[in-house]
């Protein structure tokens, strides 16, 4: 259902308090394999297609065959 703006702010503050202000933070930085810039493929100017290579990256636990 819908909530009032003040209720939404209260929920956000509560969640941020749990995630960022506790003595043992549950947040941690992303491993290098999760950085989005490493997953973006920039096509050269004028190139209109991309052929993915079918291979498994052994160093990336989230890698899969295309």
TrEMBL record:
Q: Which domain of life is it from?
A: Eukaryota
Instruction: Supply the name of the protein.
Output: Uncharacterized protein
The species is Aegilops tauschii subsp. strangulata
């Amino acid at each position: 259902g819908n909530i009032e703006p003040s209720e939404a702010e209260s929920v956000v503050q509560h969640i941020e308090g749990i995630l960022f202000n506790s003595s043992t933070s549950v947040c941690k930085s992303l491993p290098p394999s999760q950085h989005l810039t490493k997953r973006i493929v920039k096509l050269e100017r004028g190139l209109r297609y991309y052929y993915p290579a079918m291979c498994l990256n052994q160093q990336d636990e989230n890698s899969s065959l295309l």
